[in-house]
Specification:
single chain, alpha+beta, D-Maltodextrin-Binding Protein, domain 2, 6-stranded mixed β-sheet, 3-stranded antiparallel β-sheet, globular, Bact_solute-bd_prot1, SBP, Sugar ABC transporter substrate-binding protein, signal
Length: 450
């Protein structure tokens, strides 16, 4: 499906390459040998990898590493532009299970399977199957996972106990809204809940789409008719916007994963619904004031059995990378079993990359450190399938995203409308009417192409 959009997408992205600065070109020769340029998202787990990268350089004296660290939205735009147009700025790129199958079908990525197969001890079979499959195309892996996640709800056990509230193991969104109203304490500076409102298809659209799914909504019906003004989609949008406006964090329209993470870890929210990877930061004494005070339960539901998403940040190699062996050496180092132990021993076991390797969950130190959230994370990943999280069939892959090339633009546009509604600049109905027009344009291109 994705391949027929390659020419159009590439042309649209050419201009974005002019925004790429500070990159002299991938694979450049440095004073000590070859330099690999790596584009990476500046999330906490990735920053740990950067901090440990000197170990890789010491073990591989002919290779130097140069990291281009960017916030999520910027990283997506620059990595997409460079890879789509074969710009060659980066030797290794951090992408997700949204991009990987599409870019593999377009021929933009190196097939990693031959590299994996001739790497003794790398143990591809150790990857959690759903994570491995989400990064594969026609039976071969085109990206290797750094960490994997679903979504779940963190809540302050101490605040719940003080208020006489009990969190169910599988809460509904209606229950969460009631809890948020009771725990919202403006005087104490504690929001009832933190939810992303920041624009971006990978920001606010991620949690919101899971709410839409469990409310019975879908982006397109089976004939690619846009459904963003359907009663189900409207109900989900009104619920999400009202909840975050009435009981969410201050400045919610500009709050993403990082902002909510900081607020929750500093004791400024009673609940936080987001990626399961959040737990490592919540339980890290170096970054959190609430260590040991959180409980973790399944993603809240409305009409469905579950509602968590499936996502993995992973490393891929653009097809045009010159020194593929050096690039694979780095990718292997950052995603193998040994790296998990390196992070655990260096920074603490709460900070190891979760949700990728089954063997991680057999490490005694990790099991002890992650006892509050390890099983909920695995349960969320295992249950993250469309048949569990949606009420009706859809013509696209993905749970918290629509797995088509246009979603980078469509999702961002829709998220901007919803963010404006969160900020009180427009009504939910106005946001959805404009969003429906965007989605109809995309839907027609698929109807015409059948």
């Amino acid at each position: 499906m994705a391949s027929r959009f390659r020419p159009r997408l590439a042309l649209l992205l050419v201009a974005a390459l002019f925004a790429l600065t500070g990159c002299a070109g991938a694979g450049a020769l440095g004073a000590g040998g070859r330099t690999l340029v790596i584009a990476i998202v500046s999330n906490p787990q990735m920053e740990d990898a950067v901090a440990l990268s000197k170990q890789f350089e010491q073990e591989n004296p002919g290779i130097r590493l140069k990291f281009v660290q960017l916030p999520e939205n910027q990283a997506r735009a620059k990595i997409t532009a460079s890879t789509a147009t074969e710009g060659g700025e980066f030797d290794v790129v951090m992408i997700s299970n949204y991009e990987t199958p599409q870019w593999a079908a377009n021929g933009w990525l190196e097939n990693l399977q031959p590299h994996i197969d001739r790497s003794p001890g790398y143990d591809e079979a150790d990857f959690i199957p759903s994570i491995r499959d989400s990064l594969s195309h026609q039976g071969s892996m085109y990206a290797v996972p750094f960490y994997g996640e679903s979504s779940f709800l963190a809540y302050r056990k101490d605040l719940f106990e003080r208020a006489g509230l009990t969190m169910p193991e599988r809460p509904t969104w209606q229950q969460i809204a009631e809890f948020a109203a009771k725990l919202d304490d403006e005087q104490a500076g504690v929001a009832g809940i933190c939810l992303r409102g920041k624009p971006g298809w990978g920001e606010s659209l991620a949690p919101f789409s899971t709410v839409a799914n469990t409310f019975g909504a879908r982006w397109f019906d089976e004939n690619w008719n846009a459904q963003l003004t359907s009663p189900e989609f409207r109900a989900a949008a009104e619920f999400y916007v009202n909840l975050v406006r009435e009981h969410g964090e201050v400045g919610a329209s500009s709050a993403g994963f990082s902002e909510c993470g900081t607020r929750y870890a500093q004791g400024q929210a009673a609940m936080w619904y987001d990626a399961t990877v959040m737990a490592g930061t919540n339980e890290d004494p170096s970054s959190s004031t609430i260590v040991g005070k959180s409980g973790y339960v399944a993603a809240p539901v409305d009409r469905t059995a579950s509602s968590g998403w499936l996502y993995t940040w992973s490393l891929a190699m653009p097809k045009v990378t010159e020194d593929k062996e050096a690039a694979w050496s780095f990718m292997r180092w950052m995603t193998d079993k040994r790296f998990v132990h390196t992070v655990g021993n260096s920074f603490g076991w709460n900070r190891v990359p979760p949700g990728v390797r089954m063997s991680t969950y057999d490490i005694p130190e990790y099991r002890e450190a992650a006892k509050a959230y390890a099983q909920p994370t695995l349960d969320g990943i295992n249950q993250a399938q469309q048949q569990n999280t949606m009420t009706r069939p859809v013509p696209y892959p993905g749970i918290q995203f629509v797995g088509i090339p246009e979603f980078q633009d469509l999702g961002t546009r829709v998220s901007q409308q919803l963010s404006a509604a969160v900020a009180g600049q427009i009504t939910v109905d106005e946001a959805l009417r404009q969003s429906q027009e965007y989605a109809e344009t995309v839907g027609r291109s698929y109807q015409e192409g059948r």
